[in-house]
């Protein structure tokens, strides 16, 4: 969390001022249309209007504790076993419900689900957006994120990761958006918090999105743009000393796929405690992609 | 205040009714009676000075009860924001001016409309990391219908913001009790300390979530009961998740809650939150605040009227009573000392009219019963905070015991008398009630024991009785006790 906080560059008010300035300057900038995406042409959507199993032509699942993938605990010492059972993932009353449970299952103490669009919907650039109500409590770590579709050939972090929304259940007013690549990943990722001033993320739905164009990823919550990551930001922030040769390379010019999950425990959130209430649910009203 | 609120409710119903009449009939005008009273919505209580409080500002709890009125003031040299803060100096327990400090802040008008807020907030810091015993709102020393308190507030030596959530602000249409606190030195081992409060106000945070009203600490209680008996709904609270992600539970007045019985032919609930058993059968008591169901419940099963112990007939002039509804009882320190090594539950406190079971006699008068559970040993104590008891003119101990389980041959209850407790020189004597004696019961299951004091061999100072022990060494876990008295025959 400290890392995340120290990377918080601007407060919202400051950002608004910056946006105004940016607008003023970019009005004179001939490249403006290539820098800022304004994407409203719907190319993919799941409104989760049909109860039951999520649409199999759009969603597949990561199953297990990561051991089969060679990363037990999914690389973060996470505690959950992912399943595709309706107890962990189901569409109910017009929303996708991802449920984290405390139960003994295949040697794990918690179960949850991780949906992906790998090989089903992969796309380069666009506006990726979801409307989500988040769970709460220490140890809950839900996310809505994108992963490059070439991680088999170019192992993470070279294949790139765009975290549209991450959240820790014991900080119910804060989400954060990040980008991971060579020289800027894990604890050194480019990341920024967004804090709600008079509301929480676990008591109602909020919209989380990015606008991703060739040389920019803009992060927003509801109608507030709070972070803009560009190749120059990445170049500046990447760790060069002891990093890879291509530290700071912009790796976001290829198709990515969508992931939604609730992790339980792990390095970032820490383990659930006695006050954590289970089951916990992440409700997704829709996922939409525009170009 | 309750009355005023009720009348306002009636008025609003009245308005609705009148509007309906107007809409359908258009025959009548709204009367003056139907004007809905509104009160100021000011949220600030103290910024650099009191806001809208009485000139008195701080109304102390009763000095006769030990409240120190001298430790309260405004500090113009310390502030979280602005120039000044409230400074409270917590006295040592033996301060001749009073051993603790506490009181309330009262609205200077007719009360405020707090329905637009969701929390009482303030910044505070301490001279040391002490606990403040109680903070809250909803009490002006005259009315406390909607009192909310938080116990053991942990101070830091730097400023910290504290949040007291409001369980149901819609109830607070005319609240006069803006703030209350009480602080002693329990957490500092008797060392006095200072704390400061600043920026005290009602706020609409929007960042409080996961509201969970609670009764019985959120637990589901199953209990046997009897027709005519009553059970108080206890441990009433309101648990929320703060914006920091931590949970916080405040104590809340029962007036925020509505209580529901699954079977009014078995159990009904008074407005004060007392369950009265009125018939045979099983009923479950639940509660809610508005539409929010409370965690915790009470399932009572009543099989009939309470099986009273025999009513004592001896002349009160010849009796010294520790616990009986038939006599005036001497003051006791406790009906359960909760000593180290004791597993015994029940008998909490020192009020003979507020113990474990409040049953009734057939004429409707109360029959109070101690119910010791998980018994290994327990005492009724008459020492330290109350005078030792002189039973030198008495010849016998009487006690009625109702064993609430099967009595095995090796089971026993040992009665012991101790004199001189707490004054240095003690004497001690015991009498064993064996299983045969414990099985000698009346139709209601009671053993009535009359033990000559001469049977307590070694108990030599009857002028200074300090404790009466009940010891089962875990052979018997669950007993009712009634009519514990000494008499002269």
TrEMBL record, chain A:
Keywords: Hydrolase, Signal. Residues 48-291 form the GH16 domain. The keyword Signal applies. The keyword Hydrolase applies. Residues 1-28 form the signal peptide. GO terms for molecular function: hydrolase activity, hydrolyzing O-glycosyl compounds. GO terms for biological process: carbohydrate metabolic process. It comes from the Bacteria. Belongs to the glycosyl hydrolase 16 family. This is Glycoside hydrolase family 16 protein.
